[in-house]
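Our collaborator T.R. sent over the components below with a one-line note: 'Predict the complex.' Nothing else. No constraints on interfaces, no templates requested, no preferences about which chain binds where. So this is a plain run: every listed entity goes in together, and whatever single assembly comes back becomes the starting point for the next discussion.
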Amino acid sequence: MMQDVMTMDPKEIIARRVALEIRPRTLVNLGIGIPTLVSDHLDPALGVFFQSENGVVGLGHRPPEGMTDRHLTDAGGTFTSAVPGASIIDSAFSFGLIRGGHLDLTVLGGLQVDAKGHLANWMIPGKFVPGMGGAMDLVTGAKSVIVAMIHTAKGQSKVVPECTLPLTSQRRVDLIVTELAVMRPMDDGLHLLETGPGVSLETVLDQTEATLIVPDNVPQMDLSRTI
Amino acid sequence: MHLALSLHEAVEMIPDGARVMLSGFMGVGCPDGLVHALAKAGKRDLTMIVNDAARPATGVGPLVAAGCVRKFIGSHIGVNPDLQARMQRGEIEVELVPQGTFVERIRAAGMGLGGVLTPTGLGTRVAEGKQTVEVEGRTYLLEPPLRADFALIAARSCDYVGNLTYMLSATNFNPIMALAGETVIAEPEEIVPVGVIPPDAVKTPGILVDHIIKRTA
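Returned assembly:
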């Protein structure tokens, strides 16, 4: 198993680790990019329903070749399918689910996360302004928020003492999962919970600009585990 | 005015400088015929109220490319480099609104509410210059209604009295925007006799719809 894990793509490591956080029979929203990969690692028997902001509760996988239909896409505009038991809602209802405390978990990508657990993921002033889309509502309203991202960008740590990019929400995220570490922001600071498969504590500390609270024993991610 | 209009007649109604709501999410559930007709007519200075800028060839993209848009109000512009470039050159003003706030502001306009109180955006750039309101110990941002002169709707089916249905994720903003436009123009994929759409299946009652785009044989 560890051999398998050691050769895994960093994005797959993140997706597989995040999948272990998902509870049976919950409503989950996955963001674009790495978060989308999470559903590949879940047993359909868990009864998890995936929501997409554009109004699907019960998102399925990509349809077979030639079976796509322009009336059914995910929040990235990609053709998708729906699982048995799915439902369709309009955009107001969809964001009502998100803000109203009905969404159990959202998994989002990040540009920066800081020691206080604040997330920045919607603009780089003067460089790129994609817009927040549904991210501000998701981070503000979901019962639980997990940030799933590569630990660094262009050699720079994305886990920083304080976000320099505009915040997505003032809400503290619940968990940060990268290919190098699992971290939890709490009142007293950012706790290191696990290191990535085969990743040393020194590597994590070296690649993390924020101060981490490190326990005596830091376990490695156990990706052989199932829910 | 007749309920059914040609694309040409519909576009004639929309003047330069109009505030136009356009449904769709990444171009899905967008009335493409109306978009292309507006672009071809060379409209100018439109304020487009639309969730996202889609990609250059989809959704509001063709209107942006034809230089019809003066202002864009929506939540996401990340995959339309054309709009990004026009924004940087100062040709298009962009107002970014969180998606949930965007749709609630439209709903407020359509349902006669003076705005909405939302926690979304608190403590971020979105809150700058906005009033906050405390209710039952929680703080909210006061967001005003968002209305338009025209709402352009994409429907799956329409009957002779204008009742509309939508299909799957092409539903998105359509039923909400159909409440918030001074004039509502729907572009259906099919037109069916009254009675074909069961009352329970109607998502937008025909009384809200001012005009339907004629089907061309």
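Summary for T.R.: Chain B touches chain A through 47 residues (CB under 8 Å).
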